[in-house]
Design brief:
Layout lengths: L1 E10 L2 E12 L4 E5 L4 H4 L1 H12 L7 E7 L11 H11 L11 E3 L2 E2 L5 E2 L4 H10 L4 E5 L3 H4 L6 E5 L2 H8 L30 H13 L3 E4 L6 H6 L10 H14 L10 E2 L7 H5 E2 L4 E2 L1 H4 L4 E4 L7 H13 L1 E5 L4 E5 L3 E6 L18 H8 L4 H4 L4 E4 L5 H4 L8 H17 L7 H6 L3 H14 L3 H17 L7 H9 L11 H6 L1
Parallel strand pairs: 3-4, 5-8, 8-9, 10-17, 10-18, 11-14, 14-17
Antiparallel strand pairs: 1-2, 2-4, 6-7, 12-13, 15-16
Length: 502
């Protein structure tokens, strides 16, 4: 006798269709599992056998062959347990097969037959809809996550016995609905907690409005990390489509699936290329994907491994992390708002009037040289922060709250989207910049040696600044402010000020 059930496996953040084929034949009793199963899948034979016995079922004394198709696709995760168990019961006549052709089965089985949640349920449900399946049965613990899947009948089960009863039309399973979805309002650090640092606050607002990569440079304790951690609080709320993507990524990574603020990821500076970009075996999303549509904060930027730093160059342009292996290839979204932080020198006190820098010029040059010119060129905003005097902190008035700043950011973002989007063409940028402002930027480009990329990015920053002020056209003052963000260290002698005055 034969039966077929539907399951799926993850490759990156995508779910690939898998069919579990069960054949009961003549021969010595035994169970063979084929189809490139990895360890967690191979071990399902033990879990399934124990779960069937605990639920009151017995495997027939026949030769059992389990095939996971397609055979060339590697199968991972214990989420195949339920599909394998139901396939065995259907082939032996203990479970009715009438609903199996249109049902996706997901879940790990305990030895007692209880269903356990597995990572990546949400992308598997999305894949089921594209495969033409009408329903899915998932563990009861995944109710909140499953409720986010649109246009699919999702049934919740606590154990194997409930699934068999439902498929045999002798029992029911509750539906996952909007009431099961978690509505958690996350309250992160507020921007009003930052005392002083008006330039840093202004740069955060511009970065949030136009999605501009931002680099902070300053001595220890200047507030670089404090500012960066408050950036998600002023970003526009995610749309419904973005919420679903964020939930999908969190589901695959085994992170809590919830709404609210955009993600904030701050990997340690010892992180490898695989940790940043993604990869491993199996392929897992890296930090750039986990921070997708949110903020990726890289503290101590020069201390990151050079290969990890250089890998960011293409990611900032393409917005996609592609991990290629001999047998697999995965593409994962990677469009975070990048924020970097660094000290001006190894000791951290270069340019500070109240502290003596002990670093020789050669060591300072070596330290800054760890960040390549092409990567530095991709930071639209490069802001130098100075330490706030301790005696003045108590006298500095509290700044605007994140809610107030976010309202301006949302308005500016809408205007930007309506006038060419966040990545407009070069022609659109020129059209929306006044002639005298263009001439100013051209002179600055010649005198400061700006690359064409830096020139275009300065135009984008000027456009964002103009939209924050309610103007559709960037003027001379907007370009002048944008130019100030191209030089991270004010102690380096340049002619920026003279150009801006002209």
């Amino acid at each position: 006798m034969q039966s077929l059930t539907h399951a799926s496996t993850l490759v990156g953040i995508e779910a690939r269709a898998v069919q579990v084929e069960v054949h009961l034949g003549k021969g010595l009793p035994g169970l063979d599992l084929v189809g490139l199963p990895e360890a967690a899948v191979r071990e399902s034979r033990v879990r399934v056998r124990a779960a069937l016995t605990s639920t009151g079922f017995e495997l027939p004394p026949r030769q059992v062959i389990l095939n996971l198709a397609p055979a060339e696709l590697r199968k991972r995760s214990a989420g195949f347990d339920l599909a394998i168990a139901i396939g065995l019961l259907s082939a032996s006549g203990a479970c009715a097969p009438n609903l199996l052709d249109e049902t996706l089965l997901i879940g790990e089985l305990s030895l007692s037959g209880e269903l356990r949640q597995v990572p990546g349920i949400l992308p598997q449900l999305a894949s089921a809809k594209s495969r033409g399946l009408k329903r899915a049965i998932v563990p009861f613990g995944a109710a909140a996550e499953a409720a986010l899947a649109p246009e699919l009948e999702i049934r919740l089960a606590r154990n194997l016995g409930e699934v068999v009863a439902f498929l045999s039309s002798t029992g029911t399973l509750p539906l996952a609905g909007p009431a099961d979805a978690e509505h958690i309002v996350e309250v992160g650090p507020d921007l009003c907690e930052v005392r002083g640092q008006a330039v840093g606050r202004r740069a955060l607002e511009i970065a949030a409005a136009g999605a501009h990569p931002l680099l902070f440079s300053g001595p220890p304790g200047a507030g670089k990390t404090m500012l960066a951690r408050r950036l998600p609080s002023i970003l526009p709320p995610p749309t419904d489509e973005e919420r679903l993507m964020l939930a999908t990524i969190a589901s695959v990574a085994g992170l809590p699936v919830r709404g609210g603020m955009r993600p904030f990821r701050a990997p340690h500076h010892t992180a490898s290329v695989t940790a940043i970009v993604g990869g491993g075996d199996p392929i897992r999303p890296g930090e750039v994907t986990l921070a997708h549509l949110g903020v990726l904060f890289l503290d101590e930027l020069p201390e990151l491994a050079r290969p990890a730093l250089e890998s960011l160059r293409t990611l900032l342009e393409s917005g996609v992390a592609v991990v290629a292996r001999a047998k697999e290839r995965a593409s994962m979204p990677a469009r975070p708002l990048l924020v970097g932080a660094m000290n001006p020198c190894p000791c951290g006190w270069h340019g500070e009037p109240r502290r003596l820098c002990i670093c020789p010029p050669s060591r300072i040059a070596s330290y800054r040289g760890r960040i390549s010119g092409p990567l530095l060129d991709r930071f639209d905003l490069q802001v130098a922060l100075s330490a706030v005097e301790v005696s003045q902190v108590a006298h500095i008035p509290q700044g605007e709250t994140s809610a107030v700043v976010r309202e301006r950011v949302v308005r500016a973002r809408r205007r930007l989207q309506a006038s060419g989007g966040l990545s407009p063409s070069f022609e659109v940028l020129l059209e929306r910049t006044q002639p005298d402002a263009r001439r100013l930027l051209e002179r600055a480009g010649d005198q400061l040696g700006l690359s064409m990329r830096a020139f275009v990015r300065a135009l984008k920053v000027a456009r964002t600044i103009a939209q924050l002020e309610g103007s559709d056209v960037a003027g001379k003052s907007h370009v002048a402010e944008a130019l100030q963000y191209r030089l991270p260290d004010p102690t380096v002698p340049t002619s920026t000020d003279r150009v801006a005055r002209d």
